[in-house]
Amino acid sequence: MITENVVSVMIPSLRYARLDMGLAQPNILAILMALFCALIVTLLLIIRFNRPRKMYLAFGRRSRTIRGDSQDGKPEESEASPNHVLQRLREQPHLSGEMYSAQLQEYFLIKLLQGELGRSAIAEKIKQAGVSDWTQLAVIVFQTDGLEQTRYEPVDEDIILFAMHNIISEVIPDSRRLRPVLLNRGVAVLAGAPSQEEQAFAAQVLEEAKAVQQAVKQYLGLSVSAGVSRVFQEMKDGAVAYRGAITALEYRIRCGGGVVLRIEDMEESSGGQPIYPKHLEVELLEAVQSADQERSEGVLSEFMTSVTAGQGGSYRDCQLFLLKLLISLMDLAGGYGTGHLLPKESALLERFFSFRSAVEMEQWLKAEMISPLVRYRAQQEANQDHLLSDQIKKLIHENYHTELTLEACAASLNFNPDYLRQVFRKQTGETFSDYLARYRLKMAKQMLRETDMKITEIAQRLGYNNAQNFIRYFRKMEGITPGQYREQRHLSS
């Protein structure tokens, strides 16, 4: 039998209630029922939050397949490769007619854009794809402009490409394209139309590319650029058109991100022979050597503007100029023996060629090249300046009794006098002349206290040609004459 005391321990809120067995039992049942309900709710919440994670993991597995990674870390054949698509078709004979046609289009387009189909194979495939009546064709390649300063991380790139694939499928009508495919960190689309003027077709392709760009911005919050090939009439030219679209995208290094670039426009604008801005390179290296971060960043921005927007030339000229600057910075780091401060050369070059815009590259150069070198130079200068200042002080302490000058110190140390003047002022907070005079005054006091030398002898010992000049300076600094100072010290002792 459950006593009142036991029940009051189990249910503190009823501590002062009068309970008998008939009243206590229903309350215990209520507690058990509440615990059971709580358990059910907990299980539902676990299922609710675990489902999105499973969906994300499913996307991750598909992404790893695209990259060629397996669960055990061994490379697998990419799902975007023709052989993998063909294998899927062979292994899934139960696919519906619509899905089978879509897989065939994907397989056909990948091989076409990679230049792996001959004329006879192309003729057969376009009949199967139902596009044999297309007379105007163009290739569009979409790529993100980078994930920096977005809510995404690099590991999300493949999932983003799948999302872009779906958006493209929704925006561009099925009748005007084959199934989009994922190639080279982008989404490629073969657009086509029967019986349409070339100029009107090109304009429509451009509008569709812009519509996809806007939709990706709206739904994914990402900046995307598109490269558009020349209009062509025969499928056999698909691989050439694809390379043209990729080349158009390379001009983002000059035009920035969030753009739709036609290869013919880019080639027309790249006329003329560009000139490498050597003077800006020299100025940038000087700013780095001077440990001037603000000036270094300003000159780098000026260099980037000059190379990417200030003159003509192809994107390859632009890339070559930026590579030349990178090598100059690497040489500068090597000259300082600071290679350990920077990533390995192979990693630097790999990162360099991965950039899709000048803005990305400029930010990277500032963070990974300029800032480490400037910090090192600042520390190096601080150490060197401190050492120089100490050496100048030592010369003063050893030669204060001579007609010592800053120029004499500079000659002894093999440095420019103006540079030493600046360094000494920066390190000590006073000029060379003031420090020398103050040290001579210190030694004069020591002689007045510890020796019986005459005032004229002390003046000569300190390098004064005229004892009156010494007396005048001493009175100016101490408020009394050297003789009065000696008398006071003798009386105090």
Give the topology, please.
Elements: H1 4-10, H2 21-67, H3 82-91, H4 97-113, H5 119-129, E1 136-144, H6 157-171, E2 181-183, E3 186-193, H7 198-220, E4 224-228, H8 238-250, H9 252-255, E5 260-262, H10 263-269, H11 278-289, H12 293-308, H13 315-336, H14 345-352, H15 358-399, H16 406-413, H17 417-428, H18 432-450, H19 455-461, H20 467-478, H21 482-492
Parallel strand pairs: 4-5
Antiparallel strand pairs: 1-3, 1-4, 2-3
Helix pairs in contact: 3-4, 4-5, 6-7, 8-10, 11-12, 12-15, 13-15, 15-17, 18-21
Explain what you see.
The structure is a single chain. The chain has 4 domains: 4-58; 82-269, Reverse transcriptase/Diguanylate cyclase domain (Alpha-Beta Plaits, 2-Layer Sandwich); 278-373; 430-493, Arc Repressor Mutant, subunit A (Orthogonal Bundle). α11 (278-289) packs antiparallel against α12 (293-308). A 5-stranded mixed β-sheet has the order 2-3-1-4-5, sandwiched between helices. It has 493 residues and is mainly α. The protein is elongated, with a radius of gyration of 40 Å. It has helices at residues 4-10, 21-67, 82-91, 97-113, 119-129, 157-171, 198-220, 238-250, 252-255, 263-269, 278-289, 293-308, 315-336, 345-352, 358-399, 406-413, 417-428, 432-450, 455-461, 467-478, 482-492, and strands at 136-144, 181-183, 186-193, 224-228, 260-262. It is 66% helix and 6% strand.
